[in-house]
Amino acid sequence: MPDPGPVVPRRRIAEELRRLRGEANRTLEEVAEALLISTSKLSRLENAQGRPQLRDIRDLVRFYRIEDTQVASRLERWTKASQSQGWWTDYSGTISDELGAHVAYETEASVARVYTIPAIPVLLQTADYARAYYLSTEPSRAADVEQLVELRMKRQEALDQRGELPPLKLVAVTHESSIRQLVGSPQIMRAQLDHLIECSTRPNIELRVFPFSSQPLFTLTCMYAYFEFSEEIDRDVVHIETHAGIRHIERPKAVERYREYHDSLYRDSLSPEETRALIRAVKNEHFV
User: Fold this and answer.
1) Which comes out higher in pLDDT, residue 1 or 24?
2) Which GO terms fall under molecular function for this chain's record (predicted)?
3) Residue 162's domain is classified under what CATH number?
4) Which end of the chain is flanked by fewer CB atoms within 10 Å, N or C?
């Protein structure tokens, strides 16, 4: 899996290096030639691809004449932070590069705003539900299913604790079909719906169901996650999940539109209290 380390420090370095080069009015070729490195290497640094090396960052600091400044200190600190391996690399033989990148953003974001159809949001799934879902939708991956389920459970730890970072805040909207769709067995669904009710009362989790009674909206049939970051330098990103894989979006205008799409789904969904009431009703009516 390429670029397995933390995503946010690399993005911060890239943002700062692009800004410095712009202020110096230099081209990629000019800077690369002055530092005796390839243009492609400098381009990768400015696009958060690959792990930045401290030697290269110090050379750039000297080139831009910002030694002993706060910017230089930040660049060095971010470079050191980018060297660590993400915990998800333990699953690199099982998951795609796209999913690895998705987990990296999820691990470091301050807020995840998700919309799912027709499955329960991954961060709120029980192990039995996740296992049954994989076996039903991807039977060819039966040999990997326990590792995939383990990965999903590991991802949920971000909702509880993340070292120096506060727990991830989750704002989840899920289509009503997800709580009615039978996955595995009625017993698995009852336990899953009970788990949703319990999780939804936690202070950093807000769960809303988009009901059948609401009018269709533009992104109604598209599952995606909007990752929000607390630092101003960290641009928000969107990941759209399809059968063909995960599409990464970070162009500001496109990201802004997806925030509006999620806000619309949020507004037209049931309140958290109404959501819990509907989940209880569905459980007692369909999964006895």
Assistant:
1) 24
2) DNA binding
3) 3.30.870
4) C
